[in-house]
Amino acid sequence: MNESLGKPIDRVDGRLKVTGAATYAAEYQIKNLAYGAPVLSTVTKGRIKDIDIQQAEKMPGVIGVMTSENCMMLHSPSGSDPGSGKFAEKDLLPLQNDRVLYGGQYVAVVVAETAEQAEQAAAVIKITYEEQKPVVGFEANFATAYQPGSGLGGAKTQEKRGDADAAMKSAAITTNETYTTPVYSHNAMEPHATIAEWNGDKLTVYDATQSVMGVQGLLSTILGVPKENTQVYALYIGGGFGSKGFTWANTLLAPMAAKQFNRPVKIELKRQQVFSAAGRRTQTQQKIGLGAGVDGKLTSIKHDTISETSFVDEFVETAGVATSMIYSSPNVEVKHSLVRLNRGTPCPMRAPGESVGMYALEVAMDELASKLKMDPVQLRILNHSDMDEQKKKQFSSKYLKECYQRGAEAIGWSNRNVEPGTTKQGNLLVGYGVATATYPANRSASSAKATLFADGHAEILCGTQDIGTGTYTVMTQVAADAFGLPVDKVNVKLGSSSYPKGAQSGGSQVSASVGPPIRAAALGAVSKVVKIAIADPKSPLFGKKEEDIIANNGHIQLKDNANKGESFMAILSRKGMDKIEASAKTDVSTRQQQQSSPAPDGSPEAKIEAESKTNAAVQADEKTDRKDYVFHSFGAQFAKVLVDPDLGTIRVEKISSVMDIGTVMNLKTATNQIMGGILFGMGMALMEETKYDPNNGRLVTRDLAQYLVPVHADIPEIDVQFIEKPDPFISPIGARGIGEIGVTGMAAAIANAIYNATGKRVRDLPITPDKLIV
Ligand code: MOS
């Protein structure tokens, strides 16, 4: 009843972060800690013939060197329990053989008393390779392209309706262009880091991860340690952007080394090491064909993506996933294919699929608008899809037209000249661009535990994590409202694998997934207190009906008479109880709309499932009929740019972004999320690019001096608005996730604005000045 939800409250962990009191994975002070320095392969493909560790072993402080010749054997993660996380390189468990399949692959780990000693010794290890000719170059290997299986979350990689080719042939207006995007590297502020400590056969791991539960599951399978003996912590995370969603070898190497040398071991990657063996976004080539009538109505959409993956795992960048649902068209064909290169494995990054896909599609829409001489906002409204025409289902809620209208107003769209290259501000060319944003609204099964204490405060435990997005804060708001407590009386604890299983921080799903069970668990605890009161002759609520009672400001009271009631503290202390607990699991999935398998008998999760059957909030939520709906967020991205016609330099002057994401849980953190996405989109459009040596396939860009990201001086005026219409079907909270949608469409809006400013259509990201002055 306090209704803190929606209010722009400050981050509950803000003070801890700015004072340095928030402890990140690498910062735990562990007694007797040793330091591991990984050694990375200097060749791109081959076999290790010999590793000479003799000199390294004699270096000061060195405890030992772990190589494929002396390290423990690991168990393959394939076929492991589906609740486990994903190991990013399923065919390349670290140090298990002598093969090298990409440059920068881990080939040894030196463990020493200090980080400096470990690094120094790592530098003198002599490795003799038998080099083989690597597969390098993306376009050069298109002949080997093959059709992959499904993408993330079972996404289809080939889709078709009608006959796109025939419709293209008979279309009055067509565009057929090729768009390319480079490899991008996540570059979260906090590099990947793992501390592992064994206590007998019990393992404790502090890891920079987007999924404590996933890491627990994987470590258990791969190292062969029972789950209950594997404890994973990730209390604070300095960003992930997808790079910490899958688990990488560093998370295995630390416990392996800790076991081998009988010491707790920390492995903290250097910025340069993060580029090679900790994820990246794949390179893509996308061909987009659009066919329309003279009226601008789309009759055909073709989207054909080639991306690349490694030789150790298959990751498909599903760039075409939104293409079949975002616009109305009777004929659509979406294809994906993959080539394999000797590079580190790609993985999800900042709105995987839609980021690069909506870049290409939305630039193509701009090209079509130019050919039609039609306003590009108008073209999008004309082709608005009222339903998902591929799945033939309604959207749970959609206010995209309002997004276009409000965004156009905010950016000053009426000042845009249809004729490119004709608007000037001083000697600079001015351009405006628009693009559509979309991302699926994912929700998955999650659970939580709530405790009301006799001293008047409450606690939530949930095995999810806050990767820097504000999860601690918004979940405090959700819980506070359900408990009927002010936010400063609620302590939300996340980031431990010992808590009830919560969602992984990926696919923009945490808020929608863990919000409902947190709310239900808190309501469950309140309900238990209410039941005690109405059965207690000493309570002013004795004999009343539960449905007539609400929780408010630490009290339970009659709905229609706030004076009739008493505090939680009074009830619990009268009963001699120090706390009341309730747990809840909501088994809802918007992705495949299927329920998770029941937990094993007698497990802690099974107890939560049993209790949830008596929780009214869980029951109502699970009963909501979702099967006739698809869940998506939408938005409109607008950019205004200034381009220097002589130098080709681009200044993004203003961004307006209007997002339809259901309930806004916290205006401040929500705005931050979208702003972050906008900056990722700017980086993608204008700066970011990971390069490989075209001859030997080794990484060239390996630090933030070469890999450019937007800095404060690049940041324009950013206007973020929300539609604020709760989604009636996703959950009782009505909020869809917003972690990733802010990126989608942003690069296209900027690219389209650059075209409007200059008349130059650059179809190869990033759009750097050299590409504008040729
Ligand atoms: Mo996100 S790129 O799904 O972690």
Structural class: alpha+beta
Helix proportion range:
25-40%
Radius of gyration over C-alpha positions, nearest whole angstrom = 27 Å
Based on CA inertia axes, which overall geometry fits? globular
Ligands in the structure?
dioxothiomolybdenum(VI) ion
Averaged pLDDT, please? 96
Model description:
By secondary structure, the chain is of the alpha+beta class. Helix content is about 25%, strand content about 25%. It is built from 19 helices and 30 strands. The strands form seven sheets. Strands 3-5-1-12-9-10-11 form a seven-stranded mixed β-sheet, with helices on both faces. Strand 18 and strand 19 form a beta hairpin. Helix 9 runs parallel beside helix 18, helix 12 runs parallel beside helix 13 and helix 17 crosses helix 18. The longest helix has 25 residues. The protein starts with 13 loop residues before the first helix and ends with a helix. The model has no long low-confidence stretch (mean pLDDT about 95). It binds dioxothiomolybdenum(VI) ion. The site of dioxothiomolybdenum(VI) ion (MOS) has 11 residues, from loops.
What's the layout of helices and strands?
Elements: H1 14-18, E1 34-40, E2 46-52, H2 54-57, E3 62-67, E4 99-100, E5 106-112, H3 115-123, E6 126-131, E7 159-161, H4 164-170, E8 173-181, E9 193-199, E10 202-207, H5 212-223, E11 230-233, H6 250-261, E12 265-268, H7 271-277, E13 284-292, E14 298-309, H8 323-326, E15 332-340, H9 354-372, H10 376-382, E16 387-388, E17 393-395, H11 400-411, E18 424-425, E19 428-440, E20 446-453, E21 458-462, H12 471-483, E22 490-494, H13 510-534, E23 549-552, E24 555-558, E25 561-567, H14 568-574, E26 579-586, H15 604-612, H16 616-623, E27 629-630, E28 632-643, E29 650-660, H17 667-686, E30 717-722, H18 746-758, H19 769-772
Parallel strand pairs: 1-12, 10-11, 14-15, 17-27, 21-22, 29-30
Antiparallel strand pairs: 1-5, 2-4, 2-6, 3-5, 7-15, 8-13, 9-10, 9-12, 13-14, 16-17, 18-19, 19-28, 20-21, 20-26, 23-24, 24-25, 28-29
Helix pairs in contact: 9-18, 12-13, 13-16, 17-18
The site of dioxothiomolybdenum(VI) ion has 11 residues, from loops.
